[in-house]
Amino acid sequence: MDMLAGKVKMTHQTVNSTMNPTDALERPIRLHAKDVTVHYGAKQALHGISIDIPDRAVTSFIGPSGCGKSTFLRCINRMNDTIEGAKVGGLIELDGENIYDPSPDVVELRARIGMVFQKPNPFPKSIYENVAYGPKIHGLARSKTDLDEIVVSSLRKAGLFEEVKDRLNEPGTGLSGGQQQRLCIARAIAVSPEVILMDEPCSALDPIATAIIEELIDELRENYTIVIVTHSMQQAARVSQRTAFFHLGNLIEEGVTEDIFTNPINKQTRDYIMGRIG
Amino acid sequence: MNSFIIAGLLLVLLGVAYQIGWTKSRGPVTTNGVKVHSRPQYHGSLLAIWTLVPAVIVLGLWAYFGGDITRSFTVAQIPTDVVTSLDQMGLNGAIQRIQQIASGYGVTGELAPYEQAAGDSLRSFQLLTFLCVIAAAAAAGIGALLYARSRITPCLRARNMVEQVVTVLLLACSAIAILTTVGIVASLVTEAYRFFTFISPLDFFFGTVWNPKFSSTVAGDYGQYGLLPLLTGTLMISIIAMLVAVPVGLMAAIYLSQYAPRKVRAVVKPVIEIPAGIPTIVYGFFAPVTVGPFLRDVGGLVGLPISATSALTAGIVMGIMIIPFISSLSDDILNQVPLALRDGAFGPGATQSETIRNVLLPAALPGIVGAFLLAVSRAIGETMIVVLAAGNSPVLRGNPLEPVSTITVSIVNQLTGDTDFAGPQSLVGFALGLTLFVMTLCLNVFALYIVRRFREQYE
Amino acid sequence: MTDIIPTGHRATLERAKLIRAGLGRRHLQERLFKGFGMAAIALALGFVALLFADVLTKGLPAFTQSNLRLSVTYDPEVIGVDPAPVRAAGQSDADFRAANLKWQRDVALLNWNKVVEASLRAAAPADYEIDSRQILTIAETNARHQIRDLFVADPSLLGKTVTVDVLASANADNWIKGNIDRELGDAQQQLSPAARGLIDQFKANGTISSGFSRSIFTNVDSRAAPAAAGLAGAFMGSFYMMLVVIILAVPIGVASAIYLEEFAPKSRLTDLIEVNINNLAAVPSIVFGLLGAAVFINYLHLPLSAPLVGGLVLTLMTLPTIIIATRGALQGVSPALRQAALGMGASRTQMVFHHVLPVTFPSILTATIIGVAQALGETAPLLLIGMNAFVASVPATPLDQATALPVQIYLWQANENRNFFEARTSAAILVLLGFMILLNAIAIFLRTRLEKRIREGPRNGHARRQG
Ligand SMILES: Nc1ncnc2c1ncn2[C@@H]1O[C@H](COP(=O)(O)OP(=O)(O)OP(=O)(O)O)[C@@H](O)[C@H]1O
Ligand SMILES: [Mg+2]
To answer: To bridge B288 with a disulfide, which of B292, B438, C44, C75 should be the other Cys (CB 3.0-4.6 Å)?
Structure first.
């Protein structure tokens, strides 16, 4: 199965996203993963994942529940470090640097690779504080006005500013679910990461809030490399340029979204997309 | 001997009643296949209850009145002229002699002419009454049994009745907890009220001198009962205790719940909680014998005059006692903060300590404050450590290096061994107790409220 | 879209530089914070270690004690007393007892110290110069009672010589163990030079030997004979109190927890009861002592210093703990089990007693044992109901005067003979701690045993991380 995944994987160093007319450029590879394995205690959750993720494009991970999508996503910004008993093997490179090397340390790495979680998790603090948190801890703002600017611009980018501009000092937990999730996105982009990882960002949201976030992802794509985990095939088709299909801890197939959905090579992928597994 | 007979009687009644109920309820089933509402055990139990209750009531009545009846019978055996010639003590002595004769043990000295006869008739009286009581109890039980038996029918809701009895018993048990509170409040308030008839509340609550005098001195001079020296002592020790316990306990909880590997946690957590199970008298011993002299010597080195028994000694030792209290409560509370919040801070690149300080602790703050208040309430009410280590010097002063006294110490001092609550000297214990109770009550209720709110928030 | 945060390669580098600049400080903070955590753990563990080390070093020596092995001669010259009364035919119980008591009184009036002194002198080197007051300070004052009691039990000893082991006095014990500075001047020493010298000789010739101090366990408290003071009375007092607590607090506590958790309608009233119980659990123990003094002693006129009353007070104190723990255990039972039972047509009572209680039994058991252990160590409330009285006998019933183990510790630590009683008190603490450890060990053992048998015991509350 690994062999198959290897064969399907693009071997050249650039990816052609010709399927999206607005994004016909050739994108360089941003993230490179090779033979990534994860063990939770005695249980192996990932069995050697190898994938390349292109710059400034949306890559989506799909697959049945429990197949290891979140686990792999969490490897990319080393969130698995915070789980007791989790062991990560293999190689993940960001711009050619191994992210598990000690030297660019995990704090710095996470500033470059941000993450948005499945359930909106704003801090029980004001909206302003939520967004300002990242820049503050990293010392990205030289002055109060700098910080204000960062907060406003992040909220703008997340499409939330107009809705909350009058109540920046109210607690972030008082927002609606969709607003909270956009607040979390704003919080993630406030440190201007290069890569944004999103783990089922819309699973707790209604269709309208989902549509807003999807639009937002499409806009963010211009400046960020985005990886999104989703259970909705339609969402993957709508927002992503590339799609990877996981099953039981393996990467089964990966390629241009259009190809995966119209013409999957692997039978399991086909079954999943047709709704026969998962 | 008698009690064995009585216990035997009750057991026999119980067994017979249960058996009868059991068999009777089976009757209809075997003969014509009627469906019985309740299982035989319940009929048995119901009958047993029916039987035992009247029997026990009869026995109880005898236990309550029997002594008086026997006594007046015995007095009646003594010639009237002898009775009138004796005082209360003498009469009791005479009665006791007759009882000893009746029991066959005998008495020393010459027998008075009436004594042997009185002893003999008392003996037969006792036998007679005992038999009567047994018979009455048995009759009551059997009567009730027969009545209840006649009511056993297939549709008798025996189970529901038995369950009702059980529920009432359970309710009675939980009423005891309420009664305890009522008892505490009632006894504290009434006795404190009596105290305030001697000493005005103003002098008590705002007095700055604590100097109770014992009754032997000039009549009407009870001394001074100012609460403030004790209150400051109590607060000073509690503050020192919290200064020791909060940083250590909280940091230990943080380290255990956030940093320590699972294996370390599994070993260290129970060990840290050991002090919570150690009786406070042990700390009380430890404080003046080891900690106090150590502090005094350290103070001597740096030129500070620290008494071996002082607010500092008591406070530090009490702090040690409270550490596990704080650490285990804080640990619980930190573990209740959702992991998602932690991830939210790790996500944009916070270090672990930043995550803890900026997100975890603020989120857990209400719960932790609740835990602290509970700990303060414990410190205020702690007795044995301060009795032995605080130095028992009820003088209003602010220096924690000198001996102080506390509310609890004074309660112990004023009330040990003295139980005729007649003067303010002992009654003041209840006024102090009331003060203590109200203080801790406010702290507890407030703290429990905060903690409950916190739990609900993250449920 | 106007963009205040610049993007592009240069901006990225710029930002990375800013982040790196702060990293050193942040990592230092991290290490410091973690260091504080470890220091806190070390402190907390250190306190535990220190406490135990202190009590152990002080208390362990008290478990060995100096004994004197004496050859006691029941010299008829000294013991001039009528033969013990024999029961005459037709004599009433009362008369015989009176005669016996009179004989014992006569025996007690004899100068038994003479017998003790004679046997001490017999063991001493010939013509060792020491006066009789001084030589008697070597043996504990209860030696004469011990020797007398042997005679009362067996009057035929008259004229015979037997070997008797008696305790060396507390001061002699201190001298031998070095608990008192041997270099101190005579004025500060408790024993005269002659007595000290003789003790050393006794030590050398084997008359004094140190052995396991049985007296701590078998004797009652004693003021006149400190070396003979033991915990037997206090132990019995504590035992009766624990009995009362177990008989009353456990069933009542479990029953009220069951009622509140399973039967009580959820209402304002039950809310109030809940608050009330939670609060009771945090009421200072001394307040329960006040309650006991006012209600049990002053109002109901129950006897002072009685273990029954102490047990009642401790029962009231322990109840909330047991109720709360039991309720916690009941809450931990999965709703599935309840629904399964109810679904099979069980009544509420049947569900509770047949299905829910058995599953929670291990937790309830553990909680009650821990509650009882807590009651065992409680001191303050007992002081207010007179249990700090000096009692030199083993209570025969829960209504007799008695002390309790923790109260005995309180009494002993106040004894003026500090050199001796510091160790005795520590030994008593060790005994008390030993009981508490035993109780907790039993709780843990039973819990693991029972939980193995009942699979659905309360689960560990470790929430699995959400993916
Ligand atoms: N903290 C953990 N401890 C132990 N096992 C875990 C942990 N997190 C995940 N797993 C296991 O690893 C496997 C992969 O989980 P993961 O959360 O990555 O799945 P997923 O593809 O994200 O599923 P979903 O779509 O339901 O979110 C699962 O079998 C899961 O049980
Ligand atoms: Mg997932």
So the answer is: B292
Question: Across residues A145-157, what is the average pLDDT?
Answer: 91
Structure confidence at residue A277 as a pLDDT band (50, 70, 90): low
Is there a contact between C170 and C137 (Cβ–Cβ < 8 Å)? Answer: no
> Ligand 1 — pocket residues by CB below 6 A?
A 40, 43, 45, 63, 65-71, 83; C 465, 467
Average per-residue pLDDT in chain B? 86
Amino acid code (one letter) for B77 = Q
Picking from B123, B156, B189, the residue at the C-terminal end of a domain is: B156
Return the CA Rg of chain B. 33
pLDDT at res. B13: 84
The residues with which C168 forms a beta bridge, in sequence order, are C139
The answer to whether position B200 is within a domain reads no
Chains in contact with chain C (at least 3 beta-carbon pairs closer than 8 A): A, B
Is the model's pLDDT at A15 over the cut of 50? no
Task: Give A29-53 pLDDT, tens digit per residue.
Answer: 889 999 999 999 889 999 999 999 9
**Coil vs helix vs strand at B244:** helix
Q: B97, B393, B429, B99: which is closest to B229 by C-alpha? A: B393
Same domain as B228, residue B152: no
The better pLDDT of the pair C6, A120 is held by A120
Q: Name the residue facing A117 among B344, B349, B359 (closest C-beta).
A: B344
Chain length of chain C: 467
* pLDDT top residue among B317 and C181: B317
Q: Which residue from C242, C273, C243 is spatially nearest to C257, judged by alpha carbons?
A: C273
Instruction: Compute the radius of gyration of chain C from its Cα atoms.
Output: 33
Class of the CATH domain delimited by C232-464:
mainly alpha
Cα(C258)–Cα(C364) distance, integer angstroms: 11
- Residue B381 in any domain: the answer is yes
Decide: B242 and B375 in contact? Cβ < 8 Å. yes
Q: How many CB atoms lie within 10 A of CB C467?
A: 16
Instruction: Name the most confidently modeled range: A258-267, B173-182, B243-252, C442-451.
Output: B243-252
Q: Rounded to two decimals, what is the model's pTM?
A: 0.83
If asked whether residues B99 and B232 sit together in one domain, one would say: no
Q: Are residue B276 and residue B384 in the same domain, yes or no?
A: yes
pLDDT at B218 > cutoff 50? yes
Q: How do beta strands A26-40 and A14-16 pair? A: antiparallel
Q: For the range B294-301, what are the long-range contacts, defined as Cβ-Cβ under 8 Å and sequence gap of 24 or more?
A: B299/B401
Q: How far apart are the first and last CA of chain C?
A: 35
From the CA of A278, the nearest ligand is 1
Complex-level ipTM beyond the 0.90 threshold? no
B133, B59 contact by CB (below 8 A): yes
> Which residues of chain C form CATH 1.10.3720.10?
232-464
Mean pLDDT, residues B80-92? 82
Question: Would the CB atoms of B173 and C293 count as touching at under 8 Å?
Answer: no
> B287 with B410, same domain?
yes
The total number of structural domains in chain B stands at: 2
Furthest-apart CA atoms within chain C: distance in Å? 124
The domain in which residue B232 lies consists of: 223-455
Residue A204 carries which DSSP code? T
Backbone conformation region of residue C144, classed left if phi is above 0, alpha if psi is from -120 to 50, else beta: alpha
The residue from B134, B156, B178 where one domain ends is B156
Q: What is the predicted pLDDT for the residue at C4? A: 41
- Enumerate residues 292 to 351 of chain C having a beta carbon within 8 A of any beta carbon in chain B: 293-295, 297-299, 304, 316, 319-320, 323, 347-349
Residue A98 dihedral angles phi and psi, to the nearest 5°:
-70, 120
Contact in structure between A110 and B348 (CB atoms under 8 Å): yes
Nearest CA in chain B to A120: B340
Dist. CA A66 → ligand 2 center (Å): 7
- Report pLDDT for B312: 92
The reported pLDDT for the residue numbered A22 is 42
Q: For residue B189, what are the CA distances in angstroms to B200, B234, B326, C373?
A: 15, 22, 32, 31
